């Protein structure tokens, strides 16, 4: 993500920064975009100004997030190309309806919708099983699902494999920071690292015998519930808000968990 300071940088410096973040050479980028290495070098050093079409082509090839493509366009002297409609706007009504259909369709399994910084935007009723012991303060808007998961007043005391789950979430967030360069996500990662953990924290995600995914093993009212999660996004978004929405769903990893979820849903 481009910071406030970055918006004052020449477009060439921003292009070079994204190219280096993606760890590709000017030659590779030239091959992908059809822009000569000589012209790319001139753009990055400020000796040439890219056209609007070239900025968009380079952004697409470098997999630059939509909000940062706008920053590149502005830095090059052009108007932003990508809108950012509030989720509660009239234009986003079909999106809200789709989200509600997905969330309700996942019941009795928990599911949440988050934004790019992991703030909770919506959830289904089944999320109550995950946050049953969480401090109300952590659930106050804007509630952040990673804080809820890893804070000692959140889910942490109830997660049986907390070290493993913590390592999984931190690695996932770290990869997101590396991909986007987002300073808000970097600050969140630093904050979460400071939360205490009294279990072994694996340095890498290596499966044990018979393990196919990192599970979430949660104590709930004397039972141990085991989940695997899936992540979904909207396809081919052209709006920043839409591009940054993520739906995460938790599915039972064993029959006992499925039966408990069904029982809890029947009593709500």
Description:
- Helix content is 44%, strand content 11%.
- It is α+β, with helices and mostly antiparallel strands.
- Helix 1 crosses helix 3 and helix 9 packs antiparallel against helix 10.
- It starts with 10 loop residues before the first helix and ends with a helix.
Sequence-ordered SSE layout with sheet pairings:
Elements: H1 11-21, H2 26-33, H3 37-45, H4 52-61, H5 66-75, H6 93-106, E1 111-114, E2 120-123, H7 136-139, H8 145-150, H9 162-180, H10 183-193, E3 216-220, E4 223-232, H11 240-244, E5 246-252, H12 255-266
Antiparallel strand pairs: 1-2, 1-5, 3-4, 4-5
List key phrases describing it.
single chain, 268 residues, alpha+beta, 434 Repressor (Amino-terminal Domain), Beta-Lactamase, 5-stranded antiparallel beta sheet, 5 strands, elongated
User: If helices are DSSP runs of H or I spanning 4 or more residues, what is the number of helices?
Assistant: 12
The average pLDDT is: 93
Main sheet: strands, sense, barrel? 5 strands, antiparallel
Q: From the alpha carbons, calculate the radius of gyration and give it in angstroms.
A: 21 Å
What's the architecture of the largest domain, going by CATH?
2-Layer Sandwich
Task: Give the DSSP E fraction (strand runs of 2 or more residues).
Answer: 5-15%
Strand order of the largest sheet: 2-1-5-4-3
What are the segments in which pLDDT stays under 50 over at least 5 consecutive residues? none
Instruction: Sketch the topology as an H/E string, one letter per element.
Output: HHHHHHEEHHHHEEHEH
Work out the count of structural domains.
2
- The rough form would be described as elongated
What is the CATH C-level name of the largest domain?
Alpha Beta
- The CATH superfamily of the largest domain is PAS domain
CATH topology of the largest domain: Beta-Lactamase
Cα separation of the termini: 42 Å
Helix content: 40-55%
Summing up helix and strand content along with how strands pair, one would put the structural category as: alpha+beta
Kindly state the number of beta strands. 5
């Amino acid at each position: 993500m481009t910071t406030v300071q970055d918006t004052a940088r020449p477009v060439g410096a921003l292009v070079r920064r994204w190219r280096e973040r993606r760890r590709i050479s000017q030659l590779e980028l030239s091959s992908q975009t059809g822009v000569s290495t000589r012209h790319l070098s001139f753009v990055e050093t400020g000796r040439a100004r890219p056209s609007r079409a070239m900025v968009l082509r380079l952004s697409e090839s470098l997999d630059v997030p939509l909000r940062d493509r706008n920053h590149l366009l502005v830095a090059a002297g052009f108007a932003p190309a990508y809108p950012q409609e509030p989720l509660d706007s009239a234009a986003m009504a079909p999106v809200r309806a789709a989200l509600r259909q997905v969330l309700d369709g996942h019941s009795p399994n928990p599911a949440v919708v988050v934004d790019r910084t992991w703030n909770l935007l919506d959830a289904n009723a089944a999320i109550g099983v995950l946050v049953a012991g969480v401090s109300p303060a952590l659930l106050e808007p804007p509630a952040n699902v990673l804080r809820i998961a890893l804070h000692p007043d959140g889910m942490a005391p109830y997660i049986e494999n907390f070290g493993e789950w913590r390592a999984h979430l931190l690695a996932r967030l770290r990869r997101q920071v590396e991909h986007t360069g987002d300073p808000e996500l970097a600050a969140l990662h630093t904050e979460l690292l400071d939360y205490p953990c009294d279990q072994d924290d694996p340095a890498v995600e290596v499966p044990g015998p018979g393990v196919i995914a990192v599970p979430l093993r949660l104590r709930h009212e004397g039972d141990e519930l085991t989940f695997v999660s899936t992540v979904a996004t909207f396809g081919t978004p052209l709006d920043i808000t839409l591009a940054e929405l993520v739906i995460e769903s938790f599915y039972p990893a064993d029959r006992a968990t499925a039966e408990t979820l069904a029982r809890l849903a029947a009593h709500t």
